[in-house]
Amino acid sequence: MTFSTIFVAGAGFMGSGIAYLAASKAKARVLLYDIYPAALDRARQAIEKMGKGSLEKGFITADELSESMKRIKQTDSDKDAAEADLVIEAIAEDMQAKQELYSLLDKTCKPQTIFASNTSSLSITALASATRRSKQFIGMHFFSPAHIMKLLEIIPGLDTSVETIERIRQLGQALGKIIIGSRDMPGFITTRLGMVLINEAAFALMERLSTPEEIDLGMTLGYNHPMGPLALADFVGLDICLHIMETLYHGFGDPKYRPCPLLRQLVAAGHLGRKSGRGFYEYGGSA
User: Fold this and answer.
1) pLDDT for the residue 285
2) Model pTM score
3) 65 plus 206 within the same structural domain
């Protein structure tokens, strides 16, 4: 029931974390795929940093780290997915881009290979429609950084088989995750609740209810959140927050999910948060 070879599509920070996690915890051979050589270079550096951090904290021995690193192979060829027992996709949160990738990999992979998406908001059923394996298609929503955060949200699509769900649950346990399950609805559990809070905080700021600092303090000190919603939005990226709110709004057709006009305005101005140096807060330059 284990996965001996895992193909991770997308070598960004999330994909890199998933690759390191699969190699170190599940002891799987990992093929980390990206079409951009620069992304693979950054991924190699990120994975080395993750491994060094794990070693320094005593989570892994030097020999175990060496073996984990040997299990990870980088590739820019989608044809390598033919070797995989499991594909985990972690590319940009774009339905068309994900469906195009799945359609491509569906032709390459073995019939029994399971496909999983790290999407935080898009329909698993819609993503699965780009393949001929809807029974073997599931959502695996990791949280950043994937090798540290304990939660894993599992989302079956409309046709996902019981066997697929059980195999992914077993993998999640092998990865050391605490697992929650959600139906295939826009935003699932975590993104839906988290983004609604961010959006409502943006409305509160737009209405001059208080300052960004005091709105965030209300949630960190009053509700024991580790980070205020506006600071969190800046960390995630306001463009990403807006995209997810639009997904919720269109998915449910309910005005309570309408994106805050201030959020739209900031994104239109290029104030995207930490990555642009300015969002709800100013950071003194690009992060």
Assistant:
1) 53
2) 0.93
3) no
